[in-house]
Design goal:
GO terms for molecular function: DNA binding. Residues 35-161 form the DNA polymerase delta subunit OB-fold domain. This is DNA polymerase delta subunit 2. By secondary structure, this protein is α/β, with parallel strands linked by helices. It has 9 helices and 21 strands. The chain has helices at residues 37-59, 93-100, 196-207, 214-220, 247-250, 256-272, 332-340, 346-355, 416-419; strands at residues 3-5, 10-12, 18-20, 65-66, 77-86, 118-122, 127-132, 144-151, 157-163, 181-185, 223-229, 276-280, 310-312, 317-321, 324-329, 386-392, 396-401, 407-414, 421-426, 432-438, 442-443. It has a 7-stranded mixed β-sheet with strand order 13-12-11-10-19-20-21. A hairpin with a 5-residue loop joins strand 19 (421-426) and strand 20. The protein is globular and about 80 Å long. The protein starts with a strand and ends with a strand.
Length: 444
């Protein structure tokens, strides 16, 4: 239990209850001999009962439920299946082959959408092209949906309406009688030169009680946990040329990752000495890139790992803090969907994944993930109270309300390396605000 003090007053950091709920994201073995088709089949099988229930509530108990092979021409019916976008510009192995043969490779793009894209619905046995009341460019590959309509003479399915499963049950959050806070921060970018390091130190000093007015110290003394949502290291620390360097020369090559990890260890040690901290891996961190990413090994943090308050966790990550259920990722899922839809808003994409009841629907099609066989851990089995994504371009927040009264706070956490901002979230009322740091004008 830490104390923050000024010359006249001392503040005691309150204790909090905590439960790590990320067990399903921990890999018990690594078997890459399996096919990814098993993951799609398990996703459809798990989601189908929830979709059927939602469809009957939306279109009535008398709605005709069919599988694709059971459809009759012009019969109005409901089909449950997995969406797949056929995209001409989507990168493929053919791009790599063309580069090997010195052909003109496909140019890099921010988005891979085109007017020629088509939307397909597939179940266990067949697939069919969807047309009608459906927006192809906002659809996300891998989402399980129920569509209502009929099969046309040309073999395509005319969609009249569609729906996704209702959100799962949400337990009511614990009622707190005082303010308690969680700090969300991502994209620390250690190893990258820049003035953001001074701003990072301001953040550390504010949380640990070495900075700020008595009023600010009183607020930050109530921070019970800090969640670092990936990309703690800069992408510049990854030296891919080391892999192609001769062994006797590679000894002279000092990887930037080593110094960056030492700096991260120092950051975590400062935080963990005063407050509980969870560190998630991200795409630029020294962790296996496939989702779910496994916790960073504690041996990388000799200073911070001596504190029981320092915890290395998975990405995605789920936990309960004082009865408030958090679920979030380091942002790969949002970035990937951005590239394959016309959605521009990070908070809108985050809401779309929540509506789909799935953290990473584009995995494994365009987002690398482990080939699960008997489960899909990315399916939301219980509705969170806070759903966040790290490493976004800007801070955004929004309350999403489910049909059964669920209330979910959506939060996009900006990259600290560019925004110099973290997010302060109040567990008592689920209000959150960005806190911006500047070494020139102090903190806001």
């Amino acid at each position: 239990m830490s104390e923050e003090s000024t010359d006249n007053v001392t503040f005691q950091r309150p204790s909090s209850t905590y439960e790590n709920l990320s067990t399903r994201f921990l890999q018990k073995d690594r078997n890459f001999q399996r096919q990814y088709a098993h993951l799609y089949a398990e996703r459809l099988c798990s989601m189908r009962p929830r979709l059927l229930e939602t469809a009957k509530r939306r279109w009535g108990e008398s709605v005709v439920m069919r599988k694709l092979y059971e459809m009759k021409a012009e019969e109005k019916c409901c089909i449950v299946g997995t969406l797949f976008k056929s995209m001409e510009l989507k990168p493929s192995i053919l791009k790599e082959i063309s580069e090997d043969h010195n052909l003109v490779p496909q140019p890099a793009r921010d988005k891979y959408i085109a007017d020629s894209d088509t939307l397909i619905l597939e179940d266990e046995l067949q697939r069919i092209v969807l047309v009608g009341n459906v927006d192809v460019q906002k659809a996300i590959t891998g989402v399980v949906v129920a569509v209502s309509g009929h099969e046309r003479d040309d073999g395509k399915f005319e969609v009249d309406d569609f729906c996704m499963a209702d959100l799962p049950v949400q337990l009511p959050p614990k009622q707190l009688d005082e303010d308690r806070y969680v700090v969300l921060v991502s994209g620390l970018g250690l190893g990258e030169e820049g003035h953001h390091l001074m701003n990072l130190q301001l953040l550390l000093d504010l949380i640990t009680g070495q900075l700020g007015s008595p009023e600010e110290q009183e607020v930050y003394s109530k921070v019970v946990r800090v969640i670092i949502a990936g990309n703690s290291l800069s992408r510049n620390t990854q030296q891919t040329d080391v892999l192609s360097t001769a062994k006797y020369l590679s000894r002279k090559v000092k990887a930037g990752t080593v110094e960056a990890v030492k700096a991260l260890d120092d950051v975590l040690a400062q935080l963990a000495s005063c407050v509980a901290v969870d560190v998630m891996p991200g795409p630029s961190d020294p962790a296996f890139c496939f989702l779910p990413q496994q916790p960073l090994h504690r041996c990388m943090f000799p200073q911070a790992s001596v504190y029981p308050t320092m915890q290395s966790v998975t990405n995605p990550y789920e936990a309960s803090v004082d009865g408030v259920r958090f679920l979030g990722s380091s942002g790969q899922n949002i970035t990937d969907i951005f590239q394959y839809t016309d959605m521009e808003d990070g908070i809108g994409i985050l809401e779309a994944t929540l509506s789909a009841n799935h953290i990473a629907p584009t995995a494994p099609d365009t987002l690398a993930c482990y080939p699960y066989y008997n489960e899909d851990p990315f399916i939301m089995s219980e509705c969170p109270h806070v759903y966040f994504a790290g490493n976004q371009t800007k801070f955004q927040s929004r309350i999403f309300k489910g049909n059964a009264g669920q209330k979910v706070l959506l939060v996009t956490v900006p990259r600290f390396v560019s925004s110099h901002a973290c997010v302060l979230l109040n567990l008592r009322n689920l209000q959150c605000t960005p806190v911006v740091f500047s070494s020139n004008i102090g903190s806001e």
